[in-house]
Design brief:
Helix content: over 70%
Number of helices: 14
Strand content: under 5%
Largest sheet: none
Oligomer: single chain
Shape: globular
Structural class: mainly alpha
Order of helices and strands: HHHHHHHHHHHHHH
């Protein structure tokens, strides 16, 4: 007696349910306990930073910490009011640099990834290999050559120069990611667009880009985070004036030579994390699809 495809699927599904039901109660309890402990370990540092942000500096590092001892919003009001550094100026600089980096890096990565996915041209393998090799270098090694290049271009100490530096780190990864995602989109769509009279760029912009939203969301999130929380490049390539600093560099004002203002530093850290959380919330429904699809082909 042979089973058809549908009957075989039913048998396999029933077998999987039986195996799950055979799992002991102790194993289930251990699994859930492990997940709960892992979640607490991951969340507790963020929770403690949040609690610390409501405390005065003297109470932030007390030997016997209490959750709500002398809690207030003074740290936030002083930071946002400009008493502790030009926080709003730093915030505006960070938003501008992060958005420019995201837009430029994603556009360059999308066009390059599409070309590598659809066209054959001399040096294609070498180009993709160079993108991979660039990712192997630590950021600290790149500071000196990038610094010299910015001086030669007259962009040292400017936001545009820092945006270009961030693009050099974001574009290689984003290109690899989008190239793998474009490989999963059937080439028949391109042919249908050309039959309808679209140019190669028209096919890319009007047909392929709307289908690549998950991949674009992943690369946009990565490019945004690359520019939002980076410290080393921002410290080296921006001027020391307050009006030029980004948030990550500006937070160093709370770490002085003889003491650290932990309450204000914690409050500023929470404010810095909010935009990243908002961006993650906006793109999170595309993240799993974009990551899994981009890993199908390379």
């Amino acid at each position: 007696m042979t089973l058809d495809a549908s009957s075989l699927q039913v048998v396999r599904a029933t077998d999987r349910r039986l195996k799950r039901s055979d799992r002991s109660v102790l194993a289930s309890v251990g699994l859930h306990a492990g997940l709960i402990i892992a979640s607490l370990v991951a969340v507790f540092p963020v929770f403690w930073v949040l609690v610390t942000s409501f405390k005065p500096d003297a109470r932030a590092v007390e030997t016997t910490p209490q959750l709500f001892n002398e809690s207030s919003l003074d740290n936030y009001t002083r930071i946002l009011g400009g008493e502790k550094g030009a926080f709003l100026t730093w915030f505006g600089n960070s938003v501008l640099i992060a958005l420019l980096t995201t837009i430029i890096a994603v556009f360059l990565s999308a066009t390059t990834g599409y070309a590598a996915s659809r066209f054959r041209f001399p040096g294609k393998r070498s180009l993709m290999m160079s993108f991979l090799v660039v990712q192997m270098f630590p950021f600290a090694v790149l500071i000196v050559p990038l610094y010299n290049i910015l001086i030669a271009l007259g962009l040292q100490g400017t936001s545009i120069g820092l945006v270009l530096v961030y693009c050099t780190t974001a574009v290689p990864f984003c290109t690899y990611m989008l190239k793998g995602y474009f490989d999963t989109i059937p080439g028949d769509i391109d042919e249908a667009g050309r039959v309808d009279g679209l140019s190669p760029f028209g096919v890319f912009w009007r047909l392929i880009m709307p289908l690549a939203k998950p991949g674009l969301a992943v690369t946009s999130f990565y490019a945004f985070l690359t520019a939002w929380g980076e410290v080393a490049f921002a410290s080296a390539f921006l001027s020391a004036a307050d009006e030029s600093k980004t948030l990550a560099v500006g937070l160093q004002v709370f770490v002085q030579q003889n003491r650290t203002e932990w309450g204000h530093l914690a409050a500023a850290s929470i404010l810095v994390a909010i935009p990243a959380v908002i961006v993650f919330y906006l793109v999170q429904r595309f993240l799993v699809t974009g990551l899994s699809s981009g890993a199908v082909k390379g």
